[in-house]
Automatic annotation (TrEMBL):
It comes from Pterulicium gracile. Residues 121-339 form the NmrA-like domain. It comes from the Eukaryota. Pfam families: NmrA (PF05368). Keywords: NADP, Oxidoreductase. This is NmrA-like domain-containing protein. One of its GO terms (molecular function) is oxidoreductase activity. InterPro entries: NAD(P)-bd_dom_sf (IPR036291), NmrA-like (IPR008030), NmrA/Isoflavone_reductase-like (IPR051609).
Length: 412
């Protein structure tokens, strides 16, 4: 069952999520009226979004559900069928509204010159849609080029008339044709937001970026748990982590700065990954007390946009680890006011995938900062958690990352 609402956009201020609906009305994240000091961005238009489970944003939007609707957010970037499609469609398309997602409020945009202005994004689906809007909102001068294989993109319909967004349909993903396209638009940054089945397809994009001669930074499909610095055993030789590492090496071999961002799991995915959607329990495979890194999808997109528009070029060829919150399955059960259910396999649709993710968390691989179990096939070197946090989250000056409870806590 899909529940739908109309809203305009959401924004975070001081760890509080505000949702703006029609007629300039506002709703506080806990369902109560917002304080008088809450931010106000003026009137705005409404859009429609969907959620595939009865938690999270449902408890933020207090408007009644519509019987039918069409979503401006579809998880189409190679994501598994049945995986959650549950993200707020955020409006960044009018001057008074753009602060909703903007890493830098529009009122301050004239005070800096973006490091990069022209972006090409391939594989724009769920996360990519958030990234498009974050880059648009970052500065009035940014230009975002959306590359799609089909005749239509999968983002917001208003992109087609937006002055900062150009849609490129029927893209031919061959090195020659793609490199010519990147050269024609003078792409400074190429970003791939491919889903798991399409990770290998990034190789062509890397080659095209090299051939274009204008690309200054390549951002591969990461935005999850770390794939760098691991020792691959034979069982993982064909795994996604191995493929991501190969792509990163290919970018470096091409002589392009490679920017990778690890944010752990998206907070909005918790109910699906744990199969809370199936039985109202937090289903766990293995250790329920292993910390897992979680980040709101809009924070991950906003951080990427901030880095690419604010930090100097010499800070692009690196890895950034960010984290909105760090919780164990036991913590999640407490937040959701439910109980743990220890199982051998996570129930529901795509049980095998959910179970693999559950085992990954149990092995300690869901934490973007700490080392997994010593007997794990995937081994990382020692890291200082505090030092990594200071290098990553703190780069986005003045921003308060959303915590798990901010996104999933039921309304009072």
């Amino acid at each position: 069952m899909f529940l739908c609402w109309e809203l305009t956009f959401a924004t975070a201020r001081n760890n509080t999520l505000y949702v703006y609906a029609g007629s300039n009305s506002k709703v506080h994240a806990n369902g109560r009226a917002p304080p008088a000091s809450s931010p106000n961005f003026g009137s705005s238009r409404s859009v429609v979004f969907e959620t595939s489970y009865p938690v999270g944003i449902r408890n933020v939007i207090r408007s009644p559900p519509r019987p039918t609707c069409h979503s401006g957010r579809e998880d189409v970037t190679g994501g598994p069928k049945g995986a959650p499609n549950n993200n707020v469609a955020i409006n960044a398309f009018s001057p008074q509204d753009s602060d909703a997602l903007s890493p830098t409020p529009r009122s301050m945009a004239a005070q800096f010159t973006p490091t990069f202005k022209t972006f090409a994004i391939a594989g724009v689906g769920r996360f990519g849609s958030h990234l498009v809007e974050a880059l648009v909102a970052a500065h009035p001068s940014t230009q975002v080029h959306v590359l799609t294989r089909g005749d239509k993109h999968k983002g917001d319909s208003r992109w087609e008339s937006h002055s900062q967004i150009t849609i490129h349909p029927h893209v031919d993903y061959t090195v020659d044709n793609l490199s010519q396209l990147l050269k024609r638009i003078s792409a400074e940054v190429v970003i791939t937001t491919f889903g798991a089945p399409s990770i290998k397809g990034q190789a062509v994009v890397v080659e095209a970026a090299k051939e274009a001669g204008c690309v200054k930074v390549f951002v591969p499909s990461e935005f999850g748990t770390p794939s760098d610095g691991i020792s691959l055993g034979n069982d993982d030789e064909q795994g996604m982590s191995a493929e991501k590492m190969k792509i990163a090496k290919k970018v470096q071999d091409a002589g392009l700065p490679c920017l990778r961002i690890y944010n752990g799991f998206f907070i909005a995915d918790i109910p699906w990954v744990t199969a809370y959607t199936e039985n109202d329990l937090i289903n766990v495979v293995g250790d329920a007390d292993r910390p897992v890194s979680y980040t709101a999808i809009q924070d991950a997109a906003g951080f990427a946009a901030y880095v690419l528009t604010h930090l100097p070029p010499d800070q692009m060829n690196t890895v950034y680890r960010i984290e909105g919150d760090r919780k164990t399955p036991t913590d999640i059960a407490s937040i959701m006011d439910t109980t743990l259910n220890h199982v051998e396999s996570i129930p529901g649709q795509l049980s095998e995938l959910r179970t693999v993710l559950g085992k990954l968390m149990s092995a300690g691989l869901g934490d973007v900062f700490t080392e997994p179990k010593p007997d794990s096939v995937l081994k990382r070197g020692d890291r200082s958690r505090e030092e990594e946090m200071a290098k990553a989250n703190g780069l986005w000056e003045g921003h308060a990352f959303l915590a798990v409870k901010d996104v999933l806590l039921p309304a009072a």
